Amino acid sequence: MKQDTFETERLILRPWNEEDASSLYRYACDPAVGPIAGWPPHTSVENSLEIIRTILSAPETYAVVLKTTGEPVGSVGIMFGDGLHSADMGEGDAEIGYWIGVPYWGQGLIPEAVRRLLHRCFEELNLQHVWCGYYDGNMKSRRVMEKCGFVFHHTETGKISPLGDVRTEHFMRMTKEEWKHFNK
User: Fold this and answer.
1) Are β-strands 129-135 and 93-100 bridged in parallel, bridged antiparallel, or unpaired?
2) How confident is the model over 120-147, as a mean pLDDT?
3) Which CATH superfamily is domain 6-182 in?
């Protein structure tokens, strides 16, 4: 199945491809990026290539590509209840996950990408709820959710992260009605 490509003002959201491995490694090897989101820093270009083949090849997973350079600098994706996710989702729900390389923090690029995926979720996929989760202390991720209109829903303690440590995770959610109201 061919996956869609989307454009925003500054970004192209497109499927990852194997040629992206060195760019992925450049940003995903930074220990400031993965661990706070629950995944280990990439260890080599070959490791990043394997991640592209196994994880970033999932449906609705997109490279965040700068229009000015054509380089992928982060990732965004929509996850449904049948895959790897952290929110307790029902029918008609999905979760959005994201990250971006440190040199691009604070530029509003991930909120721009998430807003496009929210449009996809509610207008194109006709979902009813979209979730986002962040681990305790990941205030940058929380800020993205707030900028995009997500509302705090609940907190879960004692969660085992993909890294094997125990964390507290906070969940935010947006309904289709809240999205329509937020985007008037």
Assistant:
1) parallel
2) 94
3) Gcn5-related N-acetyltransferase (GNAT) (3.40.630.30)
